[in-house]
Amino acid sequence: MKAKQLTTLIVCIGIAMAGYSQKTYLKITKSKKANDYEMYPPGTKFELKNEQGYIVFKNSDQPGIIEIDEDYTLYIYPTWKEDADIFELTEGKVEKILADSYSEEDSDDHSIKSNGISANYTVSDSKEREGKKNLEFKLSNGITFIYEDDKYRAYLNEKHNYIRIEGKYLIQSEIGTLKVSFNPNNGVVWWVFEPVKE
Predict the structure, then answer these.
(1) Which of 168, 173, 174 is nearest to 147 (CA)?
(2) Where are the domains of the chain?
(3) What is the DSSP string of 152-166?
(4) Closest among 111, 102, 106, 189 to 147, alpha carbons compared
């Protein structure tokens, strides 16, 4: 009888632990202005350092938040580039949020901003592949990315002005670099746009 209770206890603990093994995404709110934030996909490595250079917050699968009320430097190491993104922060907050919290189940239409550029995108069910999703993704600066049944393309302003796509899915254009992560199994989309530095 005790062995059965022990097995049940281990199974319950395993289920509870599985709930906490979810990945977190990174959200940086830079000020109190509307839409003044950046987001990075789950698993992105980062370090938040105080003025003395000590790491006070870094990537993990545990959710958390640091309110910014003094000078901090945030170093982010995206997987799609060799150099770090560096933010000098004096206000706002840095958050690790469970990826499940990000899903917007009420609608397949989304609008979000990155570096002052807004994106509108639609996730739809594939007509060719059962249980899979497709994506139409448009930035306010003219870049469009389309994923349809394992085929993808990107263009700038006009459909015949194609942009080369590297890997999954790094899109470099004359106006900047768009990194899109799209999971056709569940329709989750992550993106960051970095304009060309003048």
Answers:
(1) 168
(2) 23-99, 107-195
(3) EEEEESSTTSB--EE
(4) 189
- What is the residue whose two structure tokens read 């009320």? 69
CA dihedral 80, 84, 90, 91 (to 10 degrees): 10
pTM: 0.57
Instruction: Find the helix or strand (DSSP H, E) in which 23 lies.
Output: none
Each residue's pLDDT expressed in tens, for the chain with a length of 198 residues: 444 443 333 333 333 333 333 477 788 888 887 667 788 878 789 999 999 999 999 988 888 899 999 999 999 988 777 889 899 999 999 998 876 554 444 344 455 656 677 888 899 999 999 999 999 999 999 999 999 999 999 999 988 889 999 888 889 898 888 888 888 988 888 888 888 776
Length of the chain: 198
